[in-house]
Amino acid sequence: MTLDHYLTSSGITAADFGAKCEPPLSEASVSRIRRGTQNITRDVMIRIINASGGKITADSLVAAA
Q: Which end of the chain is more exposed for a tag (fewer CB within 10 A), N or C?
């Protein structure tokens, strides 16, 4: 599942999702990652996957970039 699909289907805002990440991600970063305009590190990828409970996959994050 992509970050965009996860946020859309869950009704979660970029700001709320970013706050769920440990440590938190900014709303702007989540929005850029969602659009595929920001490169992400392995650490950020793991934070996103963990915050989604494993629903967002590493493959989808790499493909979006």
A: C
Asked whether the CA dihedral 32, 37, 40, 46 is positive or negative, the reply is positive
> Rounded to an integer, what distance in angstroms lies between the CA atom of residue 37 and that of residue 54?
22
Task: Give the pLDDT score at 18.
Answer: 98
Q: How far is CA 13 from CA 8, 42, 43, 46, in A?
A: 8, 23, 21, 19
Where along the chain do its domains lie?
3-64
pTM comes to 0.92
CATH number of 3-64: 1.10.260
User: At residue 23, what are phi and psi to the nearest 5 degrees?
Assistant: -70, 160
Residue 13's φ and ψ, nearest 5 degrees, are -80, 160
